[in-house]
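Changelog-linked ticket: adenosine-5'-diphosphate example.
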Amino acid sequence: MILEIVKDRGPITGEQIAEKLSLTRATLRPDLAILTMAGFLDARPRVGYFYTGKTGSQLLGEKIKKMTVKQYQSIPVVVNESASVYDAICTMFLEDVGTLFVVNGNGILVGILSRKDLLRASMGKQELESVPISIIMTRMPNITTCNPDDLLIDVANKLIDKQIDGVPVVRDVETDGKVQHEVIGRITKTNITKAFVRFANEDTV
Ligand code: ADP
């Protein structure tokens, strides 16, 4: 009823809305606060409430577009570029992840290994302890990354576009005049699923 009144008569003061509903301004206060916080109404001092014209799904979209990588990222699981395929398989099991980031001695991203990369390497008859991951990994500069301030929705789009399960969260560092990526986190399909659930549980729209 409040929304209908404001749609019809806005801008309108809280006092006037209360009058129309035969209620006191104090009774209405929490309702107005919720409608304003949720974005359906806007309030201007000395003018009153007006209808923003936004639908529930527009407001949801706006909220989703505020979710950033740094709010949802996990700690990265990395292996050194000198590791063997055997070591990488052990790390993947021990750390319970599906994607490993490959780094050099300075924590700089040099490659990435997925479950299928390791399965493929295991299909041959080679000794897995003697096969270095550096020959089977996907390597820089062909790695899709993201930064902590990126929007989660943009990362979700990258996962879909590139058909990958996760991306490293990186910070750019300059060494010898070259910009390189230091690995500081990870975003995978699991993080995005968790964000989706957390969003649904928290949201009041
Ligand atoms: P899987 O290979 O187990 O299905 P993915 O779909 O994540 O897992 O990986 C597909 C291929 O893309 C693999 O060869 C992997 O090395 C590569 N890859 C995975 N993540 C990335 C990324 N962030 N950037 C570039 N390549 C990636």
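Closing comment: Example verified and attached. The chain has two domains: 2-53, 69-197. The first strand starts at residue 41 and ends at 44.
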